[in-house]
TrEMBL record:
PANTHER family: NUCLEAR TRANSPORT FACTOR 2 (NTF2) FAMILY PROTEIN. Signal peptide: none annotated. This is SnoaL-like domain-containing protein. It comes from Aliidongia dinghuensis. Residues 8-116 form the SnoaL-like domain.
Amino acid sequence: MTDAEAVLSQNLEFYRAIGARDLAALERLWAQDAAVSCIHPGWPVIHGRVLVLQSWRAILTGPQAPRIRCSAEEAAMHGATALVTCEETLDGGSLAACNLFVLEHGVWRLAHHQATPIMARQQSGRSRPRSSIH
């Protein structure tokens, strides 16, 4: 298995754990040595493993725990770090997400998760906004 495949496998495990409300699996997925952070949509930045895991516990044990489906995953490898971008589909809409993984003791672990609402789609779905100079 390549590093990119291993990272994408861990990314899928992250979304599987969320869907199953498996807090023990989520705890195993997050980095233990590296600094971790998380930005849930509409929330301020959360720093530190304990606080990040507390935030997931609050979300997943609440009465309105989200059902998140992940698609369009792409991994960009940067040595011992990897960035996975993807789209999260929830009952209320779609989010663009990025998950930063770090290699710890031979295992890819999450160091950062961030998701933001997708307000409008561009025609091609992949084109970037063009800047203009006036």
